[in-house]
TrEMBL record:
Coiled coil: none annotated. Residues 78-259 form the tRNA(Ile)-lysidine/2-thiocytidine synthase N-terminal domain. Keywords: ATP-binding, Cytoplasm, Nucleotide-binding, RNA-binding, Transferase, tRNA processing, tRNA-binding. Residues 308-337 form the Cytoplasmic tRNA 2-thiolation protein 1 C-terminal domain. The lineage of its organism: Eukaryota, Metazoa, Ecdysozoa, Arthropoda, Crustacea. PROSITE patterns: UPF0021. Pathway: tRNA modification; 5-methoxycarbonylmethyl-2-thiouridine-tRNA biosynthesis. This is Cytoplasmic tRNA 2-thiolation protein 1. One of its GO terms (biological process) is tRNA wobble position uridine thiolation. It is found in: Cytoplasm.
Length: 375
């Protein structure tokens, strides 16, 4: 009995000591030699840094990305796509900071899309409204309701939860373009980070989608159509973990809740895989992006051509863009139109009357409304 107690005590002591050993760490000096103690380890490089040196490194990398790719010209009007989430909040903050620090000479505006998701977007939009005050950047909110006549809540009630992300993604992409056109901005910046891009590279490889694989690593996307507004990703090489760290240490006000509707399952798998790779080798994220950038398509391979939608005039790889097809399905009570087989699309679409001459439509008859331009 005594022997047993002795052994038990020994084990407890050993456990405590092991814990203490891990706990007592020598304070490490910041790797930059600034003299301060480090408080964090940079996920991207493994460097031990103090708070100020981390902020500086983070901001300078974004500045370098912007200048190396010549993303902006002085005097340009730039919309920051703002959702209230961590990426776009940090992007708005850093764009404002760099614009002031390096005299980019840009006029900034926050552009938010309200998908009409109760309990998710309404809360995140409150965050964006606070950001408008905090960063002193004007805000414009455009809703799916205004642009398409449908909120996501209503779409989900029609199509169920299986395919709703298809609608949301397609509509959001075009909504940003529509909003940017209304605001007459020169460029749009989005908060896509290195993790997002690496995930997309993986997904496009797994799907064999060569056309998207080529496009997805571009820092700036412009289509050949002169009417499309350029979009760029200043966080292309910025790790998600560092964005979270930056927001945390800067105490930025952002909204962090997953969308209440089902997440994109396929992307979820790519994401989990990427996170596992990052644990073993943090540079995996950048390495995947570089791999994506280096891939090119052999000459003579037929690629899908970019055209403009005959209904709404936005870029499309088909005669009718996906947004018009999905919207038509919703309005006709056939929400499955545009999901899955494409053979039936044309005959349905041909029944829609053409817009009158000189009449600029937002989408399928929703006319450009001056009201949308008011701040
Ligand atoms: Zn330091
Ligand atoms: Zn269209």
């Amino acid at each position: 009995m005594y022997i047993f107690l002795f052994i038990y005590r020994y084990i407890i002591l050993a456990k405590k000591q092991k814990h203490c050993f891990q706990y007592i760490e020598m304070p490490i000096k910041c790797n930059t030699g600034c003299g301060k103690n480090a408080i964090l380890k940079r996920p991207k490089t493994g460097h031990a840094l103090c708070k100020e040196c981390f902020f500086w490194a983070f901001e300078e990398e974004v500045h370098h990305t912007i200048t190396a790719a010549q993303l902006f010209k002085p005097g340009e009007y730039v919309a920051v796509a703002a959702s209230g989430g961590k990426d776009s909040t940090v992007l708005a903050y850093v764009m404002k900071l760099l614009n002031d620090r390096y005299d980019y000479g840009l006029k900034l505006v926050l552009l938010s899309i309200d998908e009409g998701i109760t309990g998710y977007r309404d809360d995140s939009l409150e965050t964006v409204k606070r950001n408008e005050q905090q960063y002193d950047i004007p805000l414009k909110i455009l809703s799916y309701e205004e642009l398409y006549g449908w909120t996501m809540d209503r779409i989900v009630s029609q199509v169920g939860r299986k395919n709703n992300c298809t609608f949301c993604g397609v509509f959001r992409r075009q909504a940003l373009d529509r909003g940017a056109e209304l605001l007459k901005v020169d460029k749009i910046v989005t908060g896509h980070n290195a993790d997002d891009i690496a995930e997309t590279v993986l997904m496009n490889i797994l799907r064999g989608d060569i056309a998207r694989l080529q496009r997805c690593t571009l820092i700036e996307t412009t289509s050949d159509g002169e009417e499309t507004i350029a979009r760029s990703k200043p966080f292309k090489y910025t790790y998600e973990k560092e964005i979270v760290m930056y927001a945390y240490f800067k105490k930025l006000d952002y909204f962090s809740t997953e969308c209440i509707y089902s997440p994109n399952a396929y992307r979820g798998h790519a994401r989990t895989h990427l996170k596992n790779l990052e644990k073993i080798r943090p540079t995996s994220i950048i390495d995947i992006i570089h791999s994506g950038e280096s891939l090119s398509v052999r000459e003579g391979v037929r690629m899908p051509s970019q055209m403009t939608c005959v209904r709404c005039g936005h870029i499309s790889s088909q005669e009718f863009c996906k947004a018009c097809v999905l919207l038509e399905g919703l309005n006709k009570g056939k929400p499955k139109l545009g999901i899955g087989k494409t053979s039936k699309i044309k005959e349905h679409m041909e029944t829609i009357p053409e817009p009158q001459k000189g009449e600029k439509t937002i989408l399928n008859g929703v006319k450009t409304d001056k009201k949308l331009l008011d701040f």
